[in-house]
Amino acid sequence: MALLEIDNLHVYYGHIHALKGISLTVDKGEIVTLIGGNGAGKTTTLRTISGTLRAPAGSAVRLNGQELHRLRANQVVEQGVIHVPEGRRVFSRMSVLENLEMGSFARKDKSGMGRDLDYIFNLFPRLKERRSQLAGTLSGGEQQMLAMGRGLMADPKILLMDEPSMGLAPVLVEAIFDTIVELNRDRGIAVLLVEQNALMALQVANRGYVLETGRIVLAGPASELQANPQVKEAYLGGA
Ligand SMILES: Nc1ncnc2c1ncn2[C@@H]1O[C@H](COP(=O)(O)OP(=O)(O)O)[C@@H](O)[C@H]1O
Ligand SMILES: [Mg+2]
């Protein structure tokens, strides 16, 4: 059984049919990427999984076979499904440490918090140095690290990451993607990675799905998608 399963998901914004029946799975321990251009429906997909948007009748989101789509957003967090949103959304008037503490409000084993904080500071030494600094004064890359760290403090089974590379210099993008691989390997945390940066995302993922205007048009192992002429043409600059 898949860890996360989306089955025939339709989402409407008024008359706009943003997701037209998408289905996908993420297995335990996997990194899966959902790639697609601007407006394809990537963020809508993540917002539906995390319970910010409601899945209509006939659509289902399941975690280990249990229906997730009937839960409220805070209950989805308690199940270990953690959304790291587009544009980071850190609490800018709070310190780095306070932001990390906010991430842990829903977790059940409070005893693991100290260990996880150590793990996060080890993963991102920058955050450790800046633990007392206001989050709003961090650079874009540091805010992305903080958003990921805050997600990790919730003790996730799966991280839903929305365009972590957006607006970052290439060297920072590489560092963020290396960290995704590291936390997946060290902790077995599954990742659903939403990206416009298909080249980087397919390098770190096990499998991928290509989303175009609300439909999944291609799916397969990341290596196959990297070699696929259609993907190369549309997303990898013909490289
Ligand atoms: N709150 C909203 N109200 C109306 N339309 C929306 C809203 N959010 C997204 N959309 C539309 O839904 C489609 C998918 O958007 P989105 O999921 O944000 O795409 P992506 O994250 O892939 O760029 C787009 O056509 C977008 O304009
Ligand atoms: Mg988006």
Runs in which pLDDT lies below 50 for 5 or more consecutive residues are none
Tally of strands:
10
**CATH fold name of the largest domain:** Rossmann fold
Largest beta sheet: strand ordering: 6-7-8-3-9-10
What are the distinct ligands in this entry? adenosine-5'-diphosphate, magnesium ion
Give the N-to-C terminal Cα separation.
Answer: 36 Å
What is the strand content?
25-35%
Mean pLDDT over the full residue set:
93
Any key phrases for this structure?
10 helices, four-stranded antiparallel beta sheet, single chain, binds magnesium ion, binds adenosine-5'-diphosphate, alpha/beta, six-stranded mixed beta sheet, 25% strand, Rossmann fold, 239 residues, 37% helix, globular, 2 domains
Give a topology summary.
Elements: E1 4-13, E2 16-26, E3 31-35, H1 42-49, E4 60-63, E5 66-67, H2 73-78, E6 81-84, H3 96-102, H4 113-123, H5 125-129, H6 140-152, E7 158-162, H7 170-187, E8 190-195, H8 198-204, E9 207-212, E10 215-221, H9 222-227, H10 229-235
Parallel strand pairs: 3-8, 3-9, 6-7, 7-8
Antiparallel strand pairs: 1-2, 1-4, 4-5, 9-10
Helix pairs in contact: 3-6
Write a compact overview of the structure shown.
The chain has 239 residues and is of the alpha/beta class. The chain is built from ten helices and ten strands. The strands form two sheets. It has a six-stranded mixed sheet, with helices on both faces. It has a four-stranded antiparallel sheet with strand order 2-1-4-5, covered by helices on one side.
